[in-house]
Amino acid sequence: MSQSSENHPYASQWKQPEEKRPELVVYNSLTRTKVPFRPAEGNSVRWYNCGPTVYDASHIGHARNYVTFDIIRRILEDYFNYDVTLVMNITDIDDKIILRARQAHLVAEHRKENPVVTEKLLGELKEALGGFLQSKLGISEDGWVVLEQQLGVPSESSEESDAKKRMHFKTAQKGRLALNDTKVGDESSNLLDSFQDIMAVVLDGKFGASVTDQKIFRDLAAYWEDEYLKDMAALNVRPASLMTRVTEFVPQVIDCIQEIIKNGYAYEAQGSVYFDVGGFGGGEKGHLYAKLCPWSAGNCKFFEEGEGALGMKLAGKKDPRDFALWKASKEGEPVWDSPWGSGRPGWHIECSAMAAAVVPGVLDIHSGGIDLAFPHHDNELAQAEAYYECSQWVNYFMHAGHVHIEGHKMSKSLKNFITIRESLERYTSSQLRIMFLQHQWHAPVFYRESSMTTAIAVESLFFNFFNNIAAHLRAAQSAPPCSVERGERDLIDLLTEVRNKVHIALCDNFDTPAVLGQLQELVNRTNIYIQSQPTPNAYVLRMVGKFVKKMLKTFGVIAESGDDFAIEASGTGSQDVWETVGPILEIVSEYRDQIRSTVLEKKDCNELLNLSDTVRNKLTDLGVIFEDRPGKSTLVKLVNKETVAKMKADQDAREVEKLARKLEMARINEAKKAEKLAKAAIVPSELFKNNAEYSKFDDQGVPTHDATGEELSKNARKKAVKEYETQVELHQKYLDGKI
């Protein structure tokens, strides 16, 4: 007969362990504090991420945004094991796209019409330059000299108005210089390049309304969308679970607007539809407007910027704060049919409508750049809560921090941005990701030389660590040592401690800087352990290596595929390469060891030793590193081309530095020799004659009195005689040709 656990005689000896598990907390822009993260539906996370408005090249600010949320997504999916559905939109209907497409089309047509510089073209450009000076800088051509004196020198001013003025000054200066260097009959390409920004605005003002081909707008957006997706792939950003494109969701946008009108929060006026901000925030249903940035709710400038450059001409608003859900059609813009007439969606409604169509109901997470918080995200919240008649559409709003380039806030309008492509020409995607990981995800990022230098060093630390682990594991494939002594025990204890600290850090608002610090400490301590052991414990090394690699995979720093430890700096594995050439390299390594051993024992085969080093150097050029270890077999490592180049560059730098030191020492020695020779040439009797410290001398030319006429003291006289005698000997050597 079985007994229940309560009646079992040994049951009372067991106690339930206390759980000491930290809870995941995240910084929520809605509360401006860290709050516990609790998805609405169990393990599922519904996430909407604001995607790009595709009208130009993606820059480092976009990288900050999308890499940051890719890291957080990976942590949620791969570390905390949440089931994440991430939806991201592509905004391909927007004032910026319309303007850029029209301007690009008109500038291209203008170039075709003016292949050669004519008097007419010069007149157009001079007129355009005058208008630009007046509208952007508030001066006429006559005021240029004064302005040039004010702005023609570099400035570290961080004032946005001053920065914009300097930007416009440079644009005008480029045009003026081009005009001065051009004559009638020249090819126009260089001149029109210099005037492109100025003429784009002029031509759009004159002929923008004539651009009616819808394909012009779609082609521009499609091109930059494709470029954006290529950039994201290059940055190792995971594709969204679902991607939406505004042009494919216009019917859903219209349905969403109709529902908001039905619920009493929007109104139609002159073919446009506006959201009633006052009616929403001041109504009886207790809605709040501007939850994210309540301090900005009365800032009309922000509302105007949120309406877009083309939206400022809309009419019929009841309140300046009201914003367009549907914009009545105007000439030179793409249009769709709607119950209110031809037009197009407003910017803010696009995200709310697409999210409602794809992930209806309450969102767990909504994310985007901090620059979108107001009015865009606050307007999104208001629209969605008006649509659903709910008080909380988003549970956690997350905003990535600004990017500052060398101390200045990056701004596309100021043209002080660096494109992703430009950045990837200098750095690897892993290095950029590490740089972002070194900052709190919601804090400002300082993109500068020093931060990237640190990121490169961190990448190199991990890269070398993995290759070191791989080499030691290969060396220990047959009968690896299993003993666990003090060194192994300490490393295992450290691994346990680091795992716990990493977990605590990730639970604390995804504190990646703290995690990176812990991983670097673990790697450094492991390297010390390896150096201290004749034969490191392969099992312990594998434990440490797997954990470090797991975390870097989670962060997207290295590739997700493969379990080997041979990691390329670009983030890809080199196991396939090793399987192909590894056995050959091991044979070469063994052969080299035997040659070295023979030569070192006999000590009379220098040629063989040189040959051994030649083999090593040639294989180094191919990415194969032989690391000599006194008393042990050579360690074999595979490295990538970039690492080989860096090693050679470092070696070259050391050689250059060594040569420079040698030349400097030679220069110093030559100077000393010349100085000694010059002194030796002095006749002893003339040694003191030009010295102002003395006034009288004896027959040999040795001083007897100082400059004041006082007789020298006994010690001073003795010192002078000694110096004279030394000079006699030195001068004699000079005469004998021995110096």
In short:
This protein has 739 residues and is an alpha/beta fold. It contains 23 helices and 18 strands.
What value does the Rg take, in angstroms? 37 Å
DSSP E strands, number: 18
Which fold name is given in CATH as the topology of the largest domain?
Rossmann fold
Number of helices: 23
CATH architecture of the largest domain: 3-Layer(aba) Sandwich
Anisotropy-based shape: extended
- Helix percent band: 40-55%
- Across the major sheet, the strand order is 5-4-3-10-11
User: What would CATH call the homologous superfamily of the largest domain?
Assistant: HUPs
The CATH top-level class label of the largest domain: Alpha Beta
- Provide the domain count: 4
Question: Which class best fits the helix and strand makeup?
Answer: alpha/beta
- Separation of the first and last Cα atoms: 113 Å
Strand percentage lies at 5-15%
Query: What's the overall average pLDDT, rounded?
Result: 87
Stretches where pLDDT is under 50 for at least 5 consecutive residues are 154-158, 568-574
Largest sheet: 5 strands, parallel
Please describe what this structure looks like:
The protein has 4 domains: 25-95 and 232-422, 3-Layer(aba) Sandwich (Rossmann fold); 427-573, Isoleucyl-tRNA Synthetase, Domain 1, CATH 1.10.730.10; 576-639, no CATH class; 681-735, no CATH class. It contains 23 helices and 18 strands. The strands form 6 sheets. A 5-stranded parallel sheet has the order 5-4-3-10-11, sandwiched between helices. It has a 4-stranded antiparallel sheet with strand order 6-7-8-9. The longest helix has 40 residues, at 641-680. The chain is extended, with a radius of gyration of 37 Å. The N and C termini lie far apart (113 Å). Residues 154-158 and 568-574 have low confidence and may be disordered. Its cofactor is Zn(2+).
